[in-house]
Specification:
binds pyridoxal-5'-phosphate; 7-stranded mixed sheet; Aminotransferase class I/II-fold pyridoxal phosphate-dependent enzyme; transferase; alpha/beta; PyrdxlP-dep_Trfase_major; single chain; 2 domains; pyridoxal phosphate binding; Aspartate Aminotransferase, domain 1; 13 helices; globular; Aspartate Aminotransferase, domain 2
């Protein structure tokens, strides 16, 4: 029987068989011709890595067990004990915790660069500085980094640029085409897109770095399981349809929220008064993504009432699913920053982050309206 599945089946197998010693030699001799052991490579995780690599225009990629594993791999492929890294101050809380609590123990030090100084890095650089880690769109205030300018500034100083492209996705922005050296994703978010997978991916512009990343994936055991890979691939097939839908809904929601008296500020790059609106428009091809933050009154009562009333935006501390949700930066992603860091980043009691899904937008507006009503 010659079975020809239309899509890649789930190779739920930790190991693969060989006929004899000759076939084993073929595995080592003809790279990519066979599989040996799923931690070293599996058809499903390779399919995911190859698809993201193609979308991002890279020279090779590795799928990882989470976005955190992707950040870990991207940083460690460029650094060793004694090195120093720069990190944008507006960064995912997990990234700064990883650097501060774990990479520091491995002898890697960090300087955080405020958003305003990202294009003027010379003052932060030491002889051992290797890279800058930044996000295309930052969490939670949706500040947008000019990646071409950042890449030029990094390369002028001999640094690599590592971009966390989770919020933008390659549908909006392809960092490697703007000069970045490495791009990574929490696949958990838009790439998989359905809130049912934890995964990550790192893509390199340079084939040698890509090969090193694969080796690190195997040796540190960062690689992704077949089932998670398969789900992420299924999600990824609709990414190019979902991102315009997220973006369109989010723009409608942002415009609506701007008119609501209970909302003191709306942070969304698609709004003309956003500080990087023009950059976001040009760098995102006219799409601004589905993420935004809003500022309610700075008291927990108001925030709780909004959360309790909203039906379409459940408080679920993640983002980027087809179904809308909301999160609370002060209590979740940015909980472990110092109070000064929180204030500096604009993360206050009234700040709520919305992940706008692809549901019919009228329902979302009606839900927000009743959740924000005075009584
Ligand atoms: C969620 C997230 C991560 C971490 O990804 P996990 O899949 O949760 O490990 C990293 N960066 C950004 C921007 C994220 O939103």
């Amino acid at each position: 029987m010659d079975i020809k599945p239309k899509i890649t089946p789930i190779y739920q197998s930790s190991v693969f068989k060989f006929e004899d010693l000759n076939e084993l030699e073929l595995y080592f001799g003809e790279s990519g011709s066979r599989y040996l052991y799923s931690r070293n490579g599996n058809p499903n995780s390779d399919e995911l890595a190859d698809m993201v690599n193609t979308l991002e225009g890279g020279a090779g990629a590795v799928a990882t067990g989470s976005g955190m594993a992707a950040i870990f791999a991207a940083l460690l492929v460029c650094c060793q004990a004694g090195d120093h890294v720069l990190c944008a101050a507006d960064i995912y809380g997990g990234s700064s915790s990883l650097i501060d609590k774990e990479l520091s123990r491995m002898g890697i030090s960090v300087t955080y660069v405020p958003f305003e100084q990202l294009y003027d890095l010379a003052q932060f650089v030491q002889p051992t500085t290797r890279l800058l880690l930044a996000e295309t769109m930052s969490n939670p205030l949706l500040r947008v980094a000019d990646l071409r300018r950042l890449a030029d500034e990094c390369h002028r100083l001999g640094l690599k640029l590592v971009v966390d492209n989770t919020f933008a996705t390659p549908i909006l922005t392809k960092p490697l085409s703007l000069g970045a050296d490495l791009v990574l994703h929490s696949v958990t978010k838009y790439i998989a897109g359905h809130s049912d997978v934890t995964a990550g991916v790192v893509v390199a512009a340079d084939p040698e770095i890509a090969a090193r990343l694969k080796q690190m994936g195997v040796l540190y055991g960062l690689t992704l399981s077949p089932m998670e890979s398969w789900l992420a691939v299924r999600g990824l097939k609709t990414l190019h349809l979902r991102m315009p839908a997220h973006s369109q809904n989010a723009l409608t929601v942002a415009n609506f929220l701007q008119e609501q008296p209970a909302v003191r500020a709306v942070y969304y790059p698609g709004l003309p008064d956003h500080p990087q609106h023009e950059l976001a428009k040009q760098q995102g091809g006219g799409l601004f993504g589905g993420m935004m933050s809003i500022l309610l009154a700075d008291d927990a009562e108001t925030v709780n009432r909004f959360m309790q009333r909203s039906q379409q935006f459940p408080f679920a501390p993640s983002l980027a699913g087809v179904d809308s949700s909301l999160s609370y930066p002060l209590g979740t992603s940015h909980r472990y920053l110092t109070p000064e860091q929180q204030t500096d980043l604009g993360i206050t009691v009234g700040l709520v982050r919305l992940s706008v899904g692809i549901e019919p937008v009228e329902g979302l507006l009606a839900d927000l309206q009743q959740a924000l009503a005075a009584e």
